[in-house]
């Protein structure tokens, strides 16, 4: 698997691209800094958190009645996972969750974003629930609250029950959407007495295109564009059904919203005409998912470029899809498009990214800190939301364990410092970003890369399962303690 193909590659996965329109072209302790001066940090009450997902960390795939997921099957296809590993063991978080929650507390995080494994709760996706599966999440939530950490739950982070893939073709069928709504209702009924914030689906843009379009992710299919657009529509419908289920079955006051790897557009030059072009581009390049969720409509440009490949739907589905949400979760890593104004087409032109553009140790992870300033700023204006959370941001790194046993990941610190400085710039201007979840708490099973790519604040020796804080853990702890980016 080439390093140029990744879990966060955004090309052709949302908006106009979804319609088939390609682009035109161990820690050292540091003394905490003094608290920031008034007005120089993040807003009071800003939520600082970290994140993981079930298949990437839990392991225990055959324990306590868990059913098989599409990833359990996919990782066993020769050549699909770069290093040949699986998530069978991963971080053993299923058994080590108390140890891992202690790591979150050590950072000073007051929030933790995790996902529920659908096949752990419903082994066949529907039918009879598995009480032992729910028991794990009850224990997890209780331990988080015991340690003063707020649980933020994600209903779907890609581990679709294999039974639903076998019976209905997975997200190709609206039957899966309806069953997802039932699953969401069950989780909401049993956990929202303690969980107050729920994300629906994580990164439709990724799992649709990579899983059903080019076969890089589970379930490994290569379907034509018309089917991909329909599957993306179905995932939006599943989101809407989940929102309605949480409203109907969750405790009063439970908040719910999506978490999407938005196709990130930023102006190449900060002039009024280019900023306006970036605003148009952000809406149109995300026309196949986020825009329909937030507005209840596909844009004219999306439908025009989709042509005969446009999804088929009825108005009642659009009403479900656009069920009001309480917040917008944005996963932001790298700029997908720098744009300038154009008198051609929709009014914007994406620019080619030169080979010399700086990136982290993954080629796809280009370093564009201004992305985390422009995207929330423009998204808040486009979709008129007053609550945005950065549901993921972070980077893989070289993460070499030195002879002294420590990991001096100054590359990750550089990345985080610059991105957080730009996020602080946004909040200082009144952009309604209310919180930030760093990906990831610890190194884990990184999908097609297996264990080869490390995104964690804590290094994990996957042979011994020993967790070791990297230097970046001290950096992030200081950010949280001072409520400032540290620049």
Helix content: 25-40%
How far apart are the termini? 37 Å
* Oligomeric state of this protein: single chain
Estimated share of beta-strand residues: 5-15%
The CATH topology is TIM Barrel
Q: Give the domain tally.
A: 1
Q: Helices and strands, in N-to-C order?
A: HEHHHEHHEHHEHHEEHHHHEEEHEHEEEH
Sketch the major β-sheet: 8 strands, parallel, barrel
- Roughly what is the average pLDDT, rounded to an integer? 93
CATH class: Alpha Beta
Strand order of the largest sheet: 1-2-3-4-5-7-10-11
Shape: globular
- CATH superfamily descriptor: Glycosidases
The count of strands amounts to 13
CATH architect. name: Alpha-Beta Barrel
Distinct helical segment count: 17
SS content category: alpha/beta
Describe the protein's architecture and organization:
By secondary structure, the chain is of the alpha/beta class. The protein has one domain (15-482): TIM Barrel, CATH 3.20.20. It has helices spanning 15-18, 54-57, 70-74, 93-107, 118-121, 131-146, 162-168, 174-191, 204-213, 225-249, 272-285, 290-295, 300-306, 315-321, 371-383, 410-428, 471-482, and strands at residues 47-51, 111-115, 150-156, 197-202, 255-260, 265-267, 328-331, 337-341, 348-350, 388-393, 433-439, 458-461, 466-469. Strands 1-2-3-4-5-7-10-11 form an 8-stranded parallel barrel. A 3-stranded mixed sheet has the order 6-8-9. The chain has a two-stranded antiparallel sheet with strand order 12-13. Helix 16 (410-428) links the parallel strand 10 (388-393) and strand 11 (433-439).
